[in-house]
Amino acid sequence: MEMGKKLLAAGQLADALSHFHAAVDGDPKNYMAYYRRATVFLAMGKSKSALPDLSRVIELKPDFTSARLQRGNLLLKQGKLDEAESDYKKVLKSSPTEKEEKEASGQLTKSDELQRLLAQSRRSFQKKDYVTAAAELDAIIDTCVWDAASREMRAECWIELGEVGKAIGDLKAASKLRNDNTQAFYKLSTIYYNLGDHEMSLNEVRECLKLDPDHKQCYSHYKQVKKLNKQIQSAEELIQEQRFEEAVSKYEAVMKTEPNVHLFSLLAKARICHALSQSQEASRAISVCSEALESNPENVDLLKDRAEAYIQDEQYEEALNDYETASKHSEGDRQIKEGLEKAQRLLKQSRKRDYYKILGVKRTAQKKEIIKAYRKLAQQWHPDNFQDPVEKKKAEKKFIDIAQAKEVLTDPEMRTKFDHGEDPMDPESQQGHSFHGGSQHFQGFNPFGSGPFNFKFNFN
After folding, report:
1. What's the chain's average pLDDT?
2. Cβ–Cβ contacts within 10 Å for residue 458, how many?
3. Which residues fall within 8 angstroms of residue 430, CB to CB, at 6 or more apart?
4. Residue 5 — very low, low, confident or very high, per pLDDT cuts 50/70/90?
5. Are the CB atoms for 244 and 176 separated by under 8 Å?
6. Separation of alpha carbons 317 and 308, rounded Å
7. CA atoms within 13 A on the CB side of 267
8. What is the C-alpha to C-alpha distance for residues 180 and 420, in angstroms, rounded to an integer?
């Protein structure tokens, strides 16, 4: 025993605990061994383990006031007010020291006040006065820090008041304070579920089922969360694999699985928006992104996805607006910065000559599509098709634009320059090409000397 006391005094708690374990095993009726071991448990912050040892001390030596006082204090922290009061009263009746008497009297007064507060909090809760009930429970929990029941009641107050984060904190504490607290895990799971956090919801409901595999509420909820979680994971894998249309279908299934929790519908729409944007289905993407943004207008990812869809749809001003809004909520985002620059460049370019628009092709068009569009338009706007001088003049200008567009977009180097905001046919920005308004002549470029339409005519 002396060795154990020395180890405890030296702060060697693990060694002291081993020593007192041996002492208890060697003499199960040695109340001091139990008391010393309880002291070590308390020093280690293991109050749950200390309580049975203190009870064993009192069982072996009922007049051991120090052990009874310590047990009363632990019971008070657990919110077991009646049991704590019983211990304090017995201390006062057993010839305590002056210090013990003072402590027991003070704790007994505190316990009486807590009893009164607890009764008031229950009345306030029943009246649905959750603000008052929460304040009263605050005062109780300040002392009864290990009182699971009070934390659970306060969690209910927080839920009713919309303070979900505080409710989660109380329920997590309550789940640890009771070994079999399935209800706390179930409530945590449903809270996370309603917050749209399917992964945390699944984690908490699994903890419930570990304690009770036959728990009806938890098992029913588990099946729902597991199904939803699997669908979302599968959809995300499809997005990673760039199987965007399948991902869209999977997220549409998510909304059918859980139509009542708005946050899951919002998540699904946001990810559908992203998938459609990535697959360059601009019109559909804009529609879904806009619908999702109605509920969450400051969502940066949604704004970026819709901006990209606007660019694909050649709505550059709208894309610019979205990127500017996103930048206000996410400073330093490189993707937003690049998107802004791209949208500004394309908007400026669209106000000049846009070779894609001239040929009526998308910016993603392949060479075959470009040549096909060129042939069709060149045939339509061939100047020989027009007899009226005014119409012929208009056709000549149109035909030159069409030929220029084909020249630029079928040449990889010129197309790259154009995509980066430079016009290879603009003499102001390109030295390799010169344009003379009077002669309508392009150095190194003859729109009528090659291709399927080989003919000659004079400009008027």
Report:
1. 88
2. 4
3. 422, 423, 424
4. low
5. no
6. 12
7. 26
8. 64
